[in-house]
Amino acid sequence: MRHGHINKKSEITVRVFGYPNSKTERRLCIEWNIVADSGCDLRGIKLGDKKIKITKIPFSIFVENIEYMDNPRFNVGDMLHRIEKQDIHTHTACPSPAAWKEAFDQGDHIFAITLSSKVSGSYNSAQVAAAMVQEEDPEKKIHILDSGSAGPGPSLLAIRAAELMEEGVSFADAVMELEDYKQKIHTMYGLSSFNNLIKNGRVSKVAGFVAGKLGLCGIGEASPQGEILVQGKVRGSGKMLAAFLERMEELDFQGGKVLISHCENQTLAKKLKEMILKQWPQAEILIMPAAGVCSYYVERKGLIVGFD
After folding, report:
1. Closest-CA residue to 114 (of 47, 52, 38, 189)
2. What is the DSSP string of 21-38?
3. CA–CA dist 134, 141 (Å, integer)
């Protein structure tokens, strides 16, 4: 495919991983903007050498009467401690259309990336916001990508979007490339507990059962439709990592990009990285701590692995 090119502004103001919090920032009008809900783990990721605006839209996480905003100041450890110490009511809330609209107002060419529409209403909220914005400004270009996954999956889409922006690819060609690339991304989950996924109806009680007291780890995968499928359970983290590598072989991984997101389990994430590099030395691997909403669902010690 031959890419069309557009004239990009030479200077693009950036607030990486942040939220507009001043009148000056809200007035900024840039040409390119990547907007993602906080189901996209971007902490520690550098998106290109040039300045590209990244806007993160936070989920809310409710633990009894406490509301946590999934922003850079979010205390994952405190949330996990409160959830684990007793059986209390918890739930999440996706970003509102108003939150998406505020972000969409900041840019002329916008790619929005959401948590899978099968597990969250964030994609629908973004669609409502896009319709509102384009009714006011029909010339504004907005494309919403339903990632079909969480954490590393949306992050890989954001990285690819940034690459295309820097290459000067036209908006229309970038849309086609990103939709094609989305089909090549695979996401796997390794969990010691499916409690929150079960309580919030993200997986069935039968499919989500894992015997944590027996040292069993749950293995899950994002389906092509964006659902979380529980593939089985294995005894111990070592067998879980081996299962990851076996599945990567089955999916014909060739040593491309790998993102490993962990919930307070950097040691296991590093071990997985070493195992992947031993088998695929050319792989590009980044480890990052899971953001709030991903930590809420994978729970303590959980891993999410995304690769292309």
Report:
1. 38
2. -SHHHHH---SEEEEEET
3. 8
Average pLDDT value for the chain: 81
DSSP state of 94: P
- Whose CA is closest to 308, among 240, 254, 229, 243? 254
Span 2-29, pLDDT tens digits: 333 333 332 333 333 233 333 333 334 4
pLDDT in tens, 203-227: 555 454 544 444 556 677 777 776 7
Beta-bridged to residue 233, according to DSSP, are: 218
- Enumerate the H helices of the chain as residue ranges: 23-27, 76-85, 97-104, 122-136, 152-167, 171-182, 195-199, 237-250, 266-279, 292-298
With residue 142 as reference, give the H or E element that holds it: strand 141-146
In the three-class reduction of DSSP (H, G, I as helix; E, B as strand; rest coil), residue 18 is classed as: strand
Global confidence as pTM: 0.82
Q: Which of 210, 220, 48, 208 is nearest to 151 (CA)?
A: 220
| Orientation angle between helical segments 97-104 and 122-136, nearest 10 degrees | 50
26: its two tokens: 């809200």
Q: Extract the tokens encoding 239.
A: 């067998």
d(CA 238, CA 217): 10
Chain mean position to CA 128: 20
Query: What is the number of other CB atoms lying within 10 angstroms of the CB of residue 238?
Result: 13
